[in-house]
Amino acid sequence: MVTRRKFILVKQFDHAPKESDLKIVEEKLPSLKKGEFLCEAVYLSVDPYMRAYIHKLPVGSPMNGRQVARIVESKSDEFQIGKYVVGNFDWQTHTVSSKGGVGSPYIVPNLGDLPLSLSLGVLGMPGNTAYFSFVNICKPKAGETIVVSGAAGAVGNIVGQVAKMKGCKVIGITGSDQKGKYLTETLGFDSYVNYKLGYFEEELKKAAPLGIDCYFDNVAGEISVTVMKHMNMFGRICNCGSISSYNTDVNHPPKVSPVQLYMLLKQLFMEGFQASQYVDRIFESMNQHMLWIQEGKLKYIETITEGFENTGKAFIEMLEGKNLGKAIVKV
């Protein structure tokens, strides 16, 4: 009988999460039934959305999240031993599932020489998010100026690179010069603005003297209000995240300056995006991103934390902006 370890929520987060809000428990797993398989976690994903939805989890619930796992036992013809799957299997070391069952698993296709961990990044949910949200909502055109907030994160860095492929001028908003230099020197962004330096608006105007046509928003808050202030007529905004408010009380979100005046005067278009609506098209974005990687048009970056017991730490550091690219835990 297999014993699994899993993280459970022992206290609702009060603003920023603490490692003591979580604990590891152990439990025995039952024998497999026909059609089921047992998989063992290889990589766990930590993502900003987990913080946004934590209030929906009752105390005692397992921490939700996606993982790459290896099938170690199977009574399923389709999910055979040795195959790797991606599933919403929570923060736990072992999972019993089936076709269409717990975690909605799918088999990882042949990635060639690419790291398996990319199945949680550019070849996974963040890549799927970037692929469908940016093009469908922002509708970029060659020569336009694109601003991406959270630009060095899992989704933002992909969006910026895709924008460059579309012939756009790309400005990344990030929280350090180290990240900014990575965006410009490695990923090909045209420029970056470090919002932590205290003169964000002045630097944004310098970077976009002709205004901003599209804004891919991962952070919300006053940063986004400032960006909207400098957008051009009929600008498009994709609201993909609201990281600036995730550590606040869900019932008392932070107050920010109103955006309606800018929306009215500039006739801006803004639409929110949820990755769930495109979950069934994961292989479409995966195949396109694999091709771009092979062609040298798309680069990937990961911040990998070693050890299952350090998953909470990795989650907290990701929310603090200490990661570059996709934050992942190697079990």
Automatic annotation (TrEMBL):
Keywords in alphabetical order: Acetylation, Cytoplasm, Fatty acid metabolism, Hydroxylation, Lipid metabolism, NADP, Oxidoreductase, Phosphoprotein, Prostaglandin metabolism
Reactions catalysed according to its record: (5S,12S)-dihydroxy-(6E,10E,12E,14Z)-eicosatetraenoate + NADP(+) = 12-oxo-(5S)-hydroxy-(6E,8E,10E,14Z)-eicosatetraenoate + NADPH + H(+); octanal + NADP(+) = (2E)-octenal + NADPH + H(+); 13,14-dihydro-15-oxo-prostaglandin F1alpha + NADP(+) = 15-oxoprostaglandin F1alpha + NADPH + H(+); leukotriene B4 + NADP(+) = 12-oxo-leukotriene B4 + NADPH + H(+)
GO molecular function, one term: 15-oxoprostaglandin 13-reductase [NAD(P)+] activity
Presence of the UniProt keyword Acetylation in the record: yes
Matches recorded under Pfam families: ADH_N_2, ADH_zinc_N
Family annotation (CDD domains): leukotriene_B4_DH_like
SMART domains: PKS_ER (SM00829)
Domain of life: Eukaryota
Its EC number(s): 1.3.1.48, 1.3.1.74
Gene Ontology cellular component list: cytoplasm
Family (UniProt): Belongs to the NADP-dependent oxidoreductase L4BD family.
PANTHER family found in the cross-reference section: PROSTAGLANDIN REDUCTASE (PTHR43205), PROSTAGLANDIN REDUCTASE 1 (PTHR43205:SF7)
Quaternary data: Monomer or homodimer.
Name under which the protein is recorded: Prostaglandin reductase 1
Organism: Aquatica leii
Phylogenetic classification of the source organism: Eukaryota, Metazoa, Ecdysozoa, Arthropoda, Hexapoda
